[in-house]
Write a structure and sequence with these properties.
- It is a single chain.
- The protein is α/β, with parallel strands linked by helices.
- The chain has a single domain, classed as NAD(P)-binding Rossmann-like Domain (Rossmann fold).
- It is 42% helix and 18% strand.
- A six-stranded parallel β-sheet has the order 2-1-3-4-5-10, sandwiched between helices. A two-stranded parallel ribbon has the order 6-9. It has a two-stranded parallel sheet with strand order 7-12.
- The longest helix is centred in the first third of the chain and has 21 residues.
- The two termini are 35 Å apart.
- The structure holds NADP nicotinamide-adenine-dinucleotide phosphate.
Amino acid sequence: MRKIAITGVTGMLGSTIATLLKEKFEIFGLTRDILAIEDYKAVYTKLSGINPDIIIHCAAYTNVESAETNPRDCYRANYLGTLNLANASKKTNSKLVYISSTGCYGSYSSDAYCEYDPVKPTTVYHKSKVAGESIVSNVCTDYLILRTGWLFGGNISHKKNFVYNRFLEAKGSDKIVSDPFQSGNPTSVDDVADQIKVLLDEDVNGLFNVVSEGVCTRYEYVKAIVDLCGLQTSVEKAATPFKRVAPVSYNEAAENFLLKNMGLSVMKPWKESLERYIINHIRQ
Ligand SMILES: NC(=O)c1ccc[n+]([C@@H]2O[C@H](COP(=O)([O-])OP(=O)(O)OC[C@H]3O[C@@H](n4cnc5c(N)ncnc54)[C@H](OP(=O)(O)O)[C@@H]3O)[C@@H](O)[C@H]2O)c1
């Protein structure tokens, strides 16, 4: 059985990948307590002990807002941490799968971005993710860089579970307000895990967008969550964009240009996957 080491295994995506890939692979889940990714020597020692075939690097400083005021903490995890993982992957001859974000494209187009579009990140967090991408493509020869969208799924106890948090917010109110100005792809972590399985089976390398099919605004996303949860709460459009510390792009939408043209996409429409998640985890 091939071995996979997963960083960030307590997170929304890492925990899902660990669960969905365990039938086919021997999984080594790396929590923050087991491995501080900023520690160069610890990363190499731990990974050479495991000697994995594949490393899936999901750990990241993911707080987009606080990264603006704590850029060094963000870069320490997302830049230095990724350099350590890339070096360990090279020295252990393992494939590195690096999870990045469609927010890296930036704010210069209102069309869904394809992989051949340049990245012009607007926030500290997205700049740090782009810096991580460069490290992976410069240090490793056997790698996947996967730019994903607005992730949903995982456990309801995950602090950043957007779907469950909107359910709780709507359940306690007659009316909630959402942002109709920002677009993206709500993206199922289950579907991302399935797509990773396909890419590992094919043993391809490169940089791919991996998003659930279809684009919507935050408002349309929240409205779909409220409707699919069977709540009567009214969802209203905010008159102006939400005020945020981080200057996030108004358009984080992307298209799976490469996956579709290579005949490798297993990504499903976002609403279909959202309904499945809500039925299985929230409405029950
Ligand atoms: N969520 C999204 O919408 C989204 C969109 C695009 C891309 N991504 C990318 O997808 C990946 C997974 O995101 P997610 O939503 O699953 O994130 P998440 O739920 O916030 O999980 C992040 C994971 O990283 C771990 N971690 C953070 N800093 C660490 C450090 N310094 N050392 C070791 N572990 C550390 C966390 O451990 P603790 O539990 O101990 O904090 C947690 O397990 C990340 O690379 C993220 O940048 C996410």
